[in-house]
Specification:
The protein contains eleven helices and eight strands. The chain has 285 residues and is an alpha/beta fold. It has an eight-stranded parallel β-barrel with strand order 1-2-3-4-5-6-7-8, surrounded by six helices. It binds 3-methyl-2-oxobutanoic acid. Residues 20, 39, 41-43, 81, 134, 177, 179, 200, 210, 212 line the site of 3-methyl-2-oxobutanoic acid.
Length: 285
């Protein structure tokens, strides 16, 4: 079973592979495939619940999906995202993180931000709740960051991201997601920190990678970030299968005998005889 500390130790040994998951069946397949970590990301608001962005996701929704994932996982480290407004204060962060760990059975939580959430990370770490930090593009602040855009391209914002990286490490985070920053900035962050960097749109020098599985499988087609590699077009395959099914139902091809249950003919005859007796005027043949 992977733990925050076993994941942390991988920094100097091997790359860390993480994916998002939000439901039992998918998490089970990912765990069997041997991914190191599964993030129950608040992206679930977009890819599972159809919200425009992640801002509206609630604690109740995060808990619901975290429980589904942790029921499935035996080996991967399950990290649950803290949704928007669930960690505005230290007190709130502690209360909600405890819920995700105790009820959701996650092994760690993730929250977005750098210096401005250092106090929350410090308090959670002191309370023995492992924290994965998240810097660079912060989807919960997508309005103030002016959309889903690469962060840290100018000197000022690159310095701020470096400060954030140092602050979350100092506060006790065991790893940090670095989202949508230039590859060379992510390289500097990765070299500077002693905790692993988990990149998404941050290039090859990060210690690990995370992808939203609907993006890599072509299931969610509303956004096409440059950093996503489409490993398969499962969305198109699903559409074809649903079309085939619909056509077969309409033509009476499905279900065939192969997918139906048999019954003793004598029982059927008795059933029909009884029905004829009850409906005396009906011609039952
Ligand atoms: O919510 C999420 O899925 C995330 C990933 C994009 C890292 O935070």
């Amino acid at each position: 079973m992977n733990t925050p500390s076993s994941i942390k130790k991988l920094k100097t040994k091997e790359k860390i592979a993480m994916l998002t998951a939000y439901d039992y069946s998918t998490a089970r397949i990912m765990d069997a495939a041997g991914v190191d970590g599964i993030l129950v990301g608040d992206t679930l608001g977009m890819v599972m619940l159809g919200y425009k962005n992640t801002s509206a996701v609630t604690m109740a929704e995060m808990l619901h999906h975290t429980k589904a994932v942790t029921r499935a996982v035996k080996n991967a480290l399950v990290v649950a995202d803290m949704p928007n407004r669930s960690y505005s204060s230290v007190k709130q962060a502690l209360k909600n993180a405890r819920l995700l760990i105790k009820e959701g059975k996650a092994k760690a939580v993730k929250l977005e931000g750098g210096t401005e959430v250092a106090a929350q990370i410090r308090a959670l770490t002191r309370a023995k709740i492992p924290v994965m930090a998240h810097i660079g593009l912060l989807p919960q602040s997508v309005k103030s960051q002016k959309g889903f855009k690469v962060q840290g391209r100018d000197l000022l914002s690159a310095r701020k991201i470096l400060q954030d990286a140092a602050a979350v490490q100092k506060a006790g985070a065991f790893a940090v997601v670095v989202e949508c920053v230039p590859e060379k900035l992510a390289k500097i962050i990765t070299k500077t920190l002693t905790i692993p960097t988990i990149g998404i749109g941050a290039g090859k020098y990060c210690d690990g990678q995370v992808l939203v599985y609907q993006d890599m499988l072509g299931i969610y087609d509303k956004l096409h970030p440059k950093f996503v590699k489409k490993y398969a077009d499962i969305g198109a395959a699903m559409k074809n299968v649903f079309q085939d099914y619909s056509e077969e139902v309409k033509k009476g091809i499905f279900p065939s005998r192969e997918h139906s249950f048999d019954m003793d003919e004598k029982i059927i005859s008795s059933l029909q005889t009884n029905r004829c007796r009850k409906k005396r005027n009906t011609n039952c043949g």
